[in-house]
Write a structure and sequence with these properties.
Elements: E1 11-13, E2 18-20, E3 28-30, E4 35-37, E5 51-53, H1 58-101, H2 112-144, H3 147-172, H4 186-212, E6 219-221
Antiparallel strand pairs: 1-2, 3-4, 5-6
Helix pairs in contact: 1-2, 1-4, 3-4
Length: 229
């Protein structure tokens, strides 16, 4: 083998053509007599991480997830106005039943139910703030296309899909609660049934996108590869 090197040391003459002095992995260089380790590996030999590129599915997925959590936020804001009174009604009915069974039992102190209603309203508003914070997080995640959030939203939607038949059953048997002194509002179950349809559609859309293209409908490509469609 000839030891003739090019002036820059990047090639050597093998007797028939100029050949790169770098080894195939870029970690060694031929100095004309032996292979010596290179001080740095050229960038073209450093493995590049794969990246994800948006496709035509990506933006509709982002809009759909963000819209779902906007609607969820609107419903969540309404819950303290009707759920606290329902809870107070339930507790009141429970006390009345206990007094009917035990006439000698002491009645609750004056103002007890008003205090309970106030306490439940505060607790519900705390829960509302927490739920809205989560909704805002997922709206931001949809805008930013966070991969981990895609899987979390998919799991949450899966639970929503399973809740649809449960709401139908509860609506059909809601009168059975009358023995407890209260009846859950129809609107509660109607909302759950109505929300089941977009939740199921979004769940299927996200699941198909995940299988066909990846999280947020983005395809995994190699750096420098063709852009996804």
């Amino acid at each position: 083998m000839s030891t003739r090197l090019s002036p820059d040391g990047m090639y050597y003459w093998d007797g028939g053509q100029w050949v790169s002095t770098l080894s195939p992995d870029g970690r060694f260089r031929w100095n004309g007599a032996s292979w010596v380790p290179t001080s740095t590996v050229p960038s073209q030999f450093v493995p590049q991480p794969t990246v994800r590129e948006p496709t035509s599915w990506t933006r509709p997925l982002q809009y759909a997830v963000a819209a779902w959590y906007v609607l969820s936020t609107v419903f969540t804001l309404s819950t303290p106005f009707w759920l606290s009174s329902l809870m107070t009604q339930t507790i009141r009915a429970s006390f009345e039943q206990q007094q009917a069974r035990n006439p000698g039992a002491a009645p609750p102190p004056p103002g007890f139910f008003d205090q309970f209603n106030t306490m439940m309203t505060v607790v519900l508003w705390i829960a509302v703030v927490f739920a809205i914070a989560i909704a805002v997080l997922f709206i931001v995640a949809a805008v930013k296309r966070w991969i981990w959030a895609y899987y979390v939203v998919l799991v949450f939607l899966g639970f929503s899909v399973l809740s649809g038949p449960t709401n139908v059953l509860n609506l059909a048997t809601r009168n059975s609660y009358s023995s407890l002194g209260f009846t859950p509002p129809v609107a509660l179950y109607v909302y759950g049934i109505v929300a089941w349809f977009p939740a199921t559609a979004l769940f299927v859309f996200m699941l198909v996108a995940l299988v066909k293209r990846g999280p947020w409908g983005m395809r995994k490509i190699s750096p420098g590869g063709p852009r996804a469609a």
